[in-house]
Amino acid sequence: MRELVDTVSDLSKFSKEKMEDQNAQVKILELNNLVKSLQENLALIEAENQVLRKHISASSLKQNSDGNSTSQLSAQDHKEGIEALIDCVVHRVGIVAGKSVVALTIYKCLLNWKCFEAEKTCVFDRLLQMFDSASKGFGASTTNGVMAHRVEAKYPALLFKLQLTTLVETMYTVTRENLKKDLTPLLSLAIQAPRAAKASLVRGQSFKTSDSPRKSFSDARFANSIPESPRKSFSDARTISFKNSMQESHWKSITDNLSDSYVILQENGIPAVLIERMMCQIFSFINIQLFNSILLRRECCTFSNGEYLKYGLSELQAWCEKLEEQHIGSAWDKLEHINQATAFLVTLQKFKISYEDLTQNICSALNVQQLYRICTQYWDDKYNSQTVSPNVLNNMRTLMTDETSDVDSSDFLLDDDTSIPFTLFEIYNAVEDKEFSQFTIPKEILDISALKLSQP
């Protein structure tokens, strides 16, 4: 591990000396972040090794002072306990009051059996085999990733922690990608206003303003599990209603999908910090899909489509407000690009917009290539108005260098974030001891004598 940190650090220094272009600077930043992460992990591993050495030394002295008959008896009890634990986890426990009885039972058993202090034990391997079998049913196999750490770890408890870390990261990734897969067809349907709606706009008809209060989510469990928010909606009094249109159902399907996913994560005892990070990445994915569609499809870069997107985004913001920030963090902020692009599409008299107003107030998050693409693709299918003035377009052309002036390249597109957005430190800090100190293990588990459990 130490050699790997040094190698990456040397590569980072070499890159700084030899490369000056923008892509190299991005790579250097990534390498620096990797070095920092590796150094933190190395420090944690070294600290844990010291603790484990002390425990192992103490445990060895105690075992040497015991008789052989006691050791044999303990081994037999230990084997029976492992079998009872595996049977218990597979058939008897689950989620109670939002807490994982599985995790708590395993942890208490491992503590009572002093497995974290042992120099050698098979219980960790048995548990990992069980976890891997369950993950295959979920749609992912973690064996290769989990077992890859075997050559790096010297102590069973440390190895088990590394394996569990890989398992958590793998399951998080699988869950996130499945959510994206479910949302993709809905987003492709919701990106463009229906033709019937466009036709009515061309004839000069406006969408009606909704006078009725916003309805709650259809899932009663979800509606009852989160508080109402007093904050104002993204849309103002001119919010488009799109009532009785097919496209309204597409946006509702998106919010319903988010609601169902959120409830499932909560009901399965997923820590709040993981739910928050996952929702932020899902909203980032929504932002990318919608924004890139505007950049690539001229039929989406219209005034009426901007009105429709504004309606859809107001529905997404209402969904975020329903949960409030403590539930999903800054998920709404991840829609910055599509929000600003939509604001531009629905702005009247674009030819009067100055370059400063466009870049500093309306679309501050967009780079010049993205702005140029939207401005040149835009067409008004409602009022037949023009895009920004030639002066504004000339300013953009002037600022774009020769390397980035090719507006037909894909450099202006947003990239999907597939990283793991959390660390073990964050999970440790987010889970408070009091959440489990008062949690009661079910009596049927306590009655299994081989587990040797007792309520505190």
TrEMBL record:
InterPro entries: Dilute_dom (IPR002710), Vascular_dev_regulator (IPR052072)
PROSITE patterns recorded: DILUTE (PS51126)
Coiled-coil spans in chain: 21-55
Keywords attached to this entry: Coiled coil
Domain Dilute intervals: 144-402
Protein known as: Myosin-6-like protein
Organism: Carex littledalei
Domain of life: Eukaryota
